[in-house]
Amino acid sequence: MSCELLEKLQQAVADVEAQLKVDASKDNIEKLRIAFLGRNGLFPALSKEMGGVPKELKKDVGIAFNSSRKAIEEALENAKNAFAVKEEAANALDVTLNGREWEIGHKHPISIMIDECVNTFRRMGFIVAEGPEVEDVYHNFDALNTPKDHPSRDEGDTFYFADGRLLRTQTSPVQIRVMESQEPPIRIVAPGRCFRRDTPDATHGMNFHQIEGLYIDKNVSLADLKSVLQQFAHEVFGEKVSIRLRPHFFPFTEPSVEYDFSCIMCGGKGCNVCKNSGYIEIAGAGMVDPNVLRNVGLDPEIWSGFAFGLGIERLAMLRYRIGDIRYLYENDVRFLEQF
Ligand code: PHE
Question: 210 C-alpha vs ligand 1 centroid, how far in Å?
Answer without folding.
Answer: 9
